[in-house]
């Protein structure tokens, strides 16, 4: 058995320590936010909360879930995440599949045009004028259509499609499959890893939609969760009515605890999606890493 050199062992130790410190730097702030969301107002104001709740209470979550506007924003975010991800995957696959096959004429020009969009992007004002002329402002379509295809995700999916043996495509054509039927019945079932990986990327992007909604949507009734959260944190628009039945007996409710509860609600759902797609996600991340 080959012995590991002292230098390599030292590198492993420092590598583990560095990655551990990096993980803690990301996890501990989230743990602090979670603890504050379950702590009483007195504990939060006095700074007693670190990583464990102090004077455990559900009152912050009761307040958030009693807010009809919060439920509406959450529903809008869920809607644009599901619908937007489906649109993204369908559009990206529809473009990536043709340019991944050698027999399609002009595919190099399409790839070049997509590559240009990665290097040069349109400024904000022309984008806003375009959305306004297309009557997409103050509409959820402004959050779904403009980013239907990500150039980076397009190249990842194209790379995966190019690894599908041409014999499988040829056999489908011999059996009489149309190009659309071949994409739906043969290519996509073989592409679950890349579809799951890019689906996570697209879903996280939609769940965290903020700037586009801020630019193109002026109606509070159409604000997604992240914009609602920004309004809650920046504007301090928290109106607490101690006389309400669910808050009776509570003299003071700290707005910071409510903000933390809102942050947790906006973060947890998208985190819970990953374990169900982890196996496909890891496979998809290996796309293009090995060339035959």
From TrEMBL:
It is found in: Cell membrane. Keywords: Cell membrane, Membrane, Transmembrane, Transmembrane helix, Transport. GO terms for cellular component: plasma membrane. The keyword Transmembrane applies. It is a multi-pass membrane protein. InterPro entries: MetI-like (IPR000515). The keyword Transmembrane helix applies. Its main location: membrane. Residues 74-277 form the ABC transmembrane type-1 domain. One of its GO terms (biological process) is transmembrane transport. PROSITE patterns: ABC_TM1. It holds the Pfam family BPD_transp_1. Belongs to the binding-protein-dependent transport system permease family. This is L-arabinose transport system permease protein AraQ. The lineage of its organism: Bacteria, Bacillati, Bacillota, Bacilli, Bacillales.
């Amino acid at each position: 058995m080959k012995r590991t050199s002292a230098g390599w062992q030292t590198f492993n130790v420092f590598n583990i320590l560095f990655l551990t410190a990096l993980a803690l730097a990301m996890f501990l702030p989230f743990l602090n936010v979670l603890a504050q969301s379950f702590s009483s107002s007195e504990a939060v104001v006095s700074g007693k909360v670190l990583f464990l709740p102090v004077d455990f209470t559900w009152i912050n979550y009761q307040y958030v879930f009693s807010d009809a506007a919060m439920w509406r924003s959450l529903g809008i975010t869920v809607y644009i995440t599901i619908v937007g991800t489906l649109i993204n995957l369908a559009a990206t696959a529809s473009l990536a599949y043709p340019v991944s096959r050698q027999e399609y004429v002009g595919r190099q020009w399409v790839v070049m045009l997509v590559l240009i969009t990665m290097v040069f992007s349109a400024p904000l004002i022309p984008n806003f004028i375009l959305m306004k002329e297309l009557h997409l402002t103050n509409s959820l379509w402004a959050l779904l259509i403009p980013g239907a295809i990500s150039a980076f995700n397009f190249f990842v999916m194209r790379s995966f499609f190019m690894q599908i043996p041409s014999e499988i495509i040829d056999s489908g054509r011999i059996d009489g499959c149309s190009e659309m039927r071949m994409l739906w019945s043969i290519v996509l079932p073989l592409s679950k890893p890349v579809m799951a990986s890019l689906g996570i990327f697209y879903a996280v992007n939609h769940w965290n939609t903020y700037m586009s909604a801020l630019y193109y949507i002026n109606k509070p009734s159409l604000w997604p969760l992240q914009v609602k959260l920004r309004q809650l944190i920046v504007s301090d628009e928290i109106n607490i009515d101690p006389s309400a039945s669910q808050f009776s007996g509570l003299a003071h409710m700290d707005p910071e605890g409510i903000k933390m509860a809102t942050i947790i609600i906006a973060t947890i759902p998208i985190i819970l999606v990953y374990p169900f797609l982890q196996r496909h996600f890891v496979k998809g991340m290996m796309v293009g890493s090995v060339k035959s």
